UniProtKB/TrEMBL annotation:
InterPro entries registered for this protein in UniProt: PAAR_motif
Protein name: PAAR domain-containing protein
Amino acid sequence: MAKRAIICVGDTTTHGGKVLEGAPTFTLNGRNVAGVGHQVLCPRCKGIFPILPDLLGRRYPHTIGERDTAVDGMRTACGAELIASQGTGTIDDVGAGERGDGGSPGGSAAAAAAAVAPSPTLCLECLKAAAKKAATMVARG
């Protein structure tokens, strides 16, 4: 699996939007790190929408302040995809991550919690394909 860059306040979206919120106690390169539920402004959809949980199937959760850490490729409630503006702070989809030099000592974005068992009914490839297309239903095959 690939490493995915951590999303911070000020990062953009595919709809031309901007991440507005982040964890107040954790920064990366001087910017607050965003997580699930933090707000994103979307000019295309004319509103403010939360970051949704990761649908690409990370094997281990990575949290900051009890929120799943937002990473490149996650989506907002309006369907916009998050785009990271930095590459020094990453999270590996299989649980190992690394913090860039700009990370604050207040926490580690790479801290892996308990393992989440893979779904016995859906393969990772099907979940990734559905997430990439923002599908509301997963077709097998």
